[in-house]
Amino acid sequence: MAAIEIQRVTPNEYRELFPAPSHRYNSVEFNQLNSHKCIEVLYLVFMDEKRKPRLGIILGDDGEDLKSPFSAPFGGFEERGMQRLEFYLDAADALVQYAYSIGRGIRLTLPPDIYNRCSNVTKQQGALLTCGFQLVCSDYDYYFPSYGGCGDMDKLPPKSRNKLRIAMRHDFGLEVHPSADRERIERCYKVIHDNRRHRGYDLRMSLEEVIRTSEIIDIDCMLLTTEGVDVAAALVYHVATGVVQLIYWGDCPGYSHLRPMNMLAYQVARYYRQKGLTVDVGPSSENGVPSLGLCDFKESVGCEMVLKPTLVYRHEVMKR
After folding, report:
1. Percentages (nearest 5) of helix, strand, coil residues in the chain
2. Interatomic CA distance for residues 58 and 94, integer angstroms
3. What is the pLDDT of residue 148?
């Protein structure tokens, strides 16, 4: 294996080395925006023996672990050009030694396979496991593929087709607002917030956090209306080439008999499939424990499933 050295750099230096990250959660802008959620943000570059940068990673220090992500659905390494497996193995080993030197463990959640480009995610997971990381959980992540029947009524299960037919009997209007402004985001957020409050849940992100995020990540707003009332909504992030992520969606209390969520799911899948984009609908689990009702709903509207792995390294169990 080649020798790898870790160099800690400034956010600006990291941005210059990795100007087009594989997904927006690995961007300097996103991590700087959320830097208050950890003790310190570390920007690390992995240099080969010729001082050539090969890989990079952004980590949040919470006092116990170095985390990627520390405030996002997933994180992981970035490549500076396509890299051989050898460099991933050496980078994982170097990261273990670096964390040990500052008395920290490591916790990494990698993107699900729909973000895998030229095996970059597969190489990360393989290298981490080889270097002693433990797979502590895999979350159940659902998506609408950019092809196939996810936006075709005839491809849905019989019960779902029936619910969609019920929805189609009503005079729903669909508004799609690409790169939405504050007013549209507020409208979507209100519908989703009311939905969560009715079910006894809180949204993890405040309205202001969503709006600030829209300044660095393009957000589409989708609103389903009837008789001038917003009855269902979705907030969708443009997070990677070929992939958008549905961050929040929901319907207003009192309208479920109209089946607005079935209609919204159908329209989301159809809209992005026509653009050739995969829709990451997000996890239906917490720390690997599935919410079976949510899994069933997503499968019923045409979603497919992949796993999103979380790996950790604890130095007290080092076997070296």
Report:
1. 40, 30, 30
2. 15
3. 65
CB 191 within 8 A of CB 250: yes
Q: Which helix (H) or strand (E) holds 251?
A: strand 243-251
pLDDT of the residue at 158: 87
- The widest CA-to-CA distance across the chain, in whole angstroms, is 67
CA–CA distances in Å: residue 58 to residues 29, 35, 72, 74, 308:
11, 11, 12, 11, 19
Task: Say what the pTM is.
Answer: 0.94
- Token pair 């491809």: residue: 155
Q: Tell me how crowded residue 144 is: count the other CB atoms within 10 A of its CB.
A: 28
Closest CA to 117 of 246, 282, 279, 242: 242
Neighbouring C-beta atoms of residue 242, cutoff 10 Å: 12
Residue 44 contacts residue 52 (beta carbons within 8 Å): no
Pick the closest to residue 114 from 136, 141, 138, 80 (CA basis): 141
Identify any residues that bridge with 220 across adjacent strands, giving them in sequence order: 236
**Tokens found for residue 13:** 């230096």
Give pLDDT, residue 240.
98
Instruction: Give dist(CA 260, CA 262) in Å, integer.
Output: 5
Contact 238, 220 (CB under 8 A): yes
How many CA atoms does the CB half-sphere of 65 hold within 13 Å?
Answer: 12
Q: Are 59 and 97 in contact (CB under 8 A)?
A: no
> Residue 206: pLDDT above 90?
yes
Give the pLDDT confidence of 170-189 residue by residue, as tens digits: 889 999 999 999 999 999 99
With H, G, I as helix, E, B as strand and everything else as coil, classify residue 133: coil
Query: Is 46 in contact with 3 (CB distance < 8 Å)?
Result: no
Both tokens assigned to 240: 């990677």
DSSP-assigned states of every residue in 151-191? T-GGGS-HHHHHHHHHHHTS-EEEEEETT--HHHHHHHHHH
